[in-house]
């Protein structure tokens, strides 16, 4: 019986070379085949860049932060899989990851992480000193997050801090300061991330209970839906406060209304706690982030 690497007689395709197969596994290790994480990390970056610059972010900073988002998300995925390489083979959703199935060695993963870290360092060098200091803290958050699941029952909140740390970085890079609105936006991102990553954790809850990995889905238990709703509401209230503090107009509020409707839709999806529907709810947060950014961008675009 032929497998995926055999010659496809019908299409004429041939086996990929060992080098190409290796590069493909590296790409999978960085989750380049699943860009949802890049988008979820990017939306708060864009929110912060637009608000801190009154809708006109510096082009150089825009490029640096977008590339930095891509690089740090990839590095975080590599370190996450390295940390979870003994657990992933026992979880249905993660059993096919490169380290779990040993198509990439731990040494190779650490080498890839080192390359990505050097690229991230190169991106930080042109930034001002406060942003460089914040970037160092953000790097520590990203690297340590995967190991917290061994002993910390709310790793999703820690991930929220890692994902939201781009907010004070963007303000520091753009303005040289971190005003109160930046911290309100940061807290809103932490709450939002904790909510959607709990939906993600609900997918693996049964497997995590067996192997001893901790998560907010396990901690919340049967109160998971109520607590996710509370986190979503708090995040939306935080974003509303950001809009008030930044004197944003009706386009922003329209975008926030769409985000609230999407959050309600996510509650419908997770109502029966079915893994596939919980995963759909998690993915739907990409649209929520887009709705907030679209409101921001349109509001600044049409200002007189």
SSE map:
Elements: H1 18-29, H2 36-52, H3 59-83, H4 106-124, H5 129-148, H6 155-164, H7 166-175, H8 180-203, H9 205-211, H10 216-220, H11 224-245, H12 250-269, H13 275-301
Description:
By secondary structure, the chain is mainly alpha-helical. It has one domain (22-294): UbiA prenyltransferase (Tetracycline Repressor, domain 2, Orthogonal Bundle), CATH 1.10.357. Helix content is 72%, strand content 0%. It has 13 helices and no strands. The protein starts with 17 loop residues before the first helix and ends with a helix.
User: How is the quaternary structure best described?
Assistant: single chain
User: Which class do the helix and strand fractions yield?
Assistant: mainly alpha
Q: Which fold name is given in CATH as the topology? A: Tetracycline Repressor, domain 2
| Rg, Å, rounded | 20 Å
The N- and C-terminal alpha carbons lie at a distance of 67 Å
Approximately how much helix is present in the residues?
A: over 70%
| Tertiary shape | globular
Low confidence ranges: 1-13
Total number of β-strand segments?
0
**Could you give the order of the helices and strands?**
HHHHHHHHHHHHH
Beta-strand content estimate = under 5%
The CATH architecture can be given as Orthogonal Bundle
CATH class: Mainly Alpha
């Amino acid at each position: 019986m032929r497998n995926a690497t055999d010659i496809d007689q019908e299409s004429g395709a041939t086996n990929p070379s060992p080098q190409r197969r290796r590069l493909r596994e590296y790409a999978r290790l960085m989750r380049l085949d699943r860009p949802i994480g890049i988008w979820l990390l990017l939306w708060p970056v864009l929110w912060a860049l637009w608000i801190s610059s009154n809708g006109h972010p510096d082009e150089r900073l825009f490029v640096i932060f977008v590339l930095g988002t891509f690089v740090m998300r990839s590095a975080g995925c590599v370190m996450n899989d390295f940390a979870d390489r003994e657990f992933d083979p026992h979880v249905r959703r993660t059993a096919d990851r490169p380290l779990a199935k040993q198509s990439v060695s731990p040494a190779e993963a650490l080498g890839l992480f080192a390359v990505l870290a050097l690229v991230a360092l190169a991106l930080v060098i042109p930034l001002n000193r406060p942003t460089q200091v914040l970037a160092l803290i953000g790097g520590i958050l990203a690297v340590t997050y995967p190991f917290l699941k061994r002993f910390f029952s709310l790793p999703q909140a820690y991930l929220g801090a890692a994902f939201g740390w781009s907010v004070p970085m963007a303000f520091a890079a753009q303005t040289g300061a971190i005003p109160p609105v930046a911290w309100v936006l940061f807290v809103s991102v932490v709450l939002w991330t904790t909510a959607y990553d709990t939906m993600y954790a609900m997918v693996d809850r049964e497997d995590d209970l067996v192997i001893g990995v901790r998560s907010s889905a396990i901690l919340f238990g049967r109160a998971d839906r109520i607590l996710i709703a509370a986190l979503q509401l708090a995040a939306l209230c935080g974003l509303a406060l950001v809009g008030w503090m930044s004197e944003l107009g009706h386009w922003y509020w329209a975008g926030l209304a769409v985000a609230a409707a999407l959050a309600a839709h996510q509650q419908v999806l997770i109502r029966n706690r079915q893994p596939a529907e919980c995963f759909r709810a998690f993915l739907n947060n990409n649209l929520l982030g887009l709705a907030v950014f679209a409101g921001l961008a349109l509001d600044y675009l049409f200002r007189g």
